[in-house]
Amino acid sequence: MTDKSRLDNPNAVINTKVLSDITKEPKICVTYRDGTKLDIRSGNKNIDHVLTLVNRHSRKLREEEDFAP
Fold first, then answer.
1. For residues 20 and 22, what is the distance between their CA atoms, to the nearest angstrom?
2. pLDDT per residue over 22-41, tens digit each?
3. Is residue 10 a contact partner of residue 26, using CB atoms and an 8 Å limit?
4. pTM of the model
5. Is pLDDT above 60 for 18?
6. Residue 2 and residue 51: Cα distance in Å, rounded?
7. Cα–Cα distance, 37 to 53 (Å, whole number)
8. Predicted confidence band of residue 69 (pLDDT cuts 50, 70, 90)
9. Which residues, 6 or more positions from 5, have their beta carbon under 8 angstroms from its beta carbon?
10. Alpha-carbon gap, residue 61 to 32, rounded angstroms
11. Which helix (H) or strand (E) holds 8?
12. What is d(CA 18, CA 30) in angstroms, rounded to the nearest whole number?
């Protein structure tokens, strides 16, 4: 993660796993604090597209926290 990403998402945890079967398409699995899971098949996506997908739900969680009583 970059320093900017750490500042934007201080509670983000990124775990990586090396696939032993190289015939499978690369996949990124994200689990958010609320338990929501997101699986992204990253084979033909660039990093900006992947981050956009990941941040979409992250923003919703942040907004809910900001407006929670």
1. 6
2. 666 778 888 887 888 888 88
3. no
4. 0.55
5. yes
6. 12
7. 12
8. low
9. 12
10. 9
11. helix 3-8
12. 15
